[in-house]
Amino acid sequence: MKMVKSAFLASAAGLVAMSGAQAADLPVKAKPVEYVKVCSLYGAGFFYMPGTDICLKIGGYVRYQMGYGGGSITAGPFSGAEGTGTRVGTHDFSQRVRTIATFDTRQQTAYGTLRTYLILGYTHDTNANQGSPLPAGALTPPYFTRGFIQIAGFTFGKATSFYDFASTAASAYNAGYLMGSSDTGDFGWIGAWYTAQLGNGVSTTFGIEQSRRGQTVYLPGATTATVFSGAFSSTANQGNAVNQTTGLPDVVGNIRVDQAWGAAQVAAAAHNVNASYYGIGTGGGSVGSPAFNEANGHPGDAWGWAVSGGLRLNAPMIGPGDYFQAQVNYTEGAIRYASGVGGTSAYLNKWKGNQFAFGQLTDATFSGTAAAGNSIDLTTAWSVFAAYEHFWTPSLRTSIYGSYLDVSYNASATAAFCARVASAIPGGGGAGCTPSFSTWQIGSRSQWNITKDLYVGVDVLYSKFQSASIGSSGAQIGTGSLPSGKGPGFYTNADQDSVNVTWRVHRDFIP
Fold this sequence. Notes:
mainly beta, Porin, 16-stranded antiparallel beta barrel, 5-stranded mixed β-sheet
């Protein structure tokens, strides 16, 4: 019995030891997995960033488009000769791919919702980013068109200008480029603003924005017959183009109402107009090779201004989703409030065959010297944009839209311009000579939403350029004054037009 008892106790001790060893080998209990949680406070697509109370939505789109028509896919139809740099017509067909990523964050604070918003993008155009294979540096770099912070009524960063009202970059219409609009929606604008909500859908915004600078140009006497290839005052031809210096921001304000029937807005902007130093004087400058330096002096600054009115009317009685919108602008010395700030250059020109049209988007001109003490002559411009969109079905829509831009120079600026033309061009500068010009455009776009987030659309835009005039039927123009691909000869100064057709396929993901 004694031996059995000893064996039993030994076995029990062994089992205890084994169970202790097995217990030591058991894994430590894992921490609970922190799953991503949906944030329903701000609409679909938001989720909580793990470990925070910040809600994030990631979205974007991919777009392919092809187009046919003269001009530039970015700057529009009035941007040079057809087939620039190669055979006529070979650049009339273009393709573009654009990819956009959006990041929207929201968070509740003691001061209300704190929001940040960012858009990153990349665009590749066939008539801009070329090469076989693509050389290093040939691709357009990535860009951002939005990057702002909002809290307690304040907006800081890159957003849409609060002067703007009607969006010409809406996906529902205008795949082309409209001259008669102030819209900055496609590329954004830098500023700092405060918006006050006054109740019943009424708000007011006041702030400062990046200066919308056109050119301020110098119009001295000319010695060469080169008024056409750049601007009528660029250093490439007449010498002495003086862009505005980087200076004061624009001051912008609006009053707006948003209600069930639509929306309305009045807005105004103040814009400082200035110029760098005179291009003729100390430093050995001469026409064609200006010397811009402090000793030459400069004209005095002036203040330009712009006012606008906008209206949107919803028309559900015609079709669910139908609406009309319009914006009119009047400016003096602030031309970019009448004619956008997109890819277009300050100089508009259209060469077709042996004809040309030209004009310049300037805030002001001046034609004196430091000794003369002249002032700046502000340029006057006005524009109007309007559009109507009709929904045939919830997935099929058609819009019609148009714009008009009129740019006029006062008697002093016109006299200086025509004196230059007369000294540069035999027979030029006579009756009818003027730097004033106008453009008008009309277009239509139809769009089919295949799914909620995928659409295809076709846009047709007709543009008319009513040219500035050299005061004669035409001029003998040399090689140095012509766009690439054009040869020297007699060219007629005449109005021009253009037809642009664009087809798109566009896919949003979490817009």
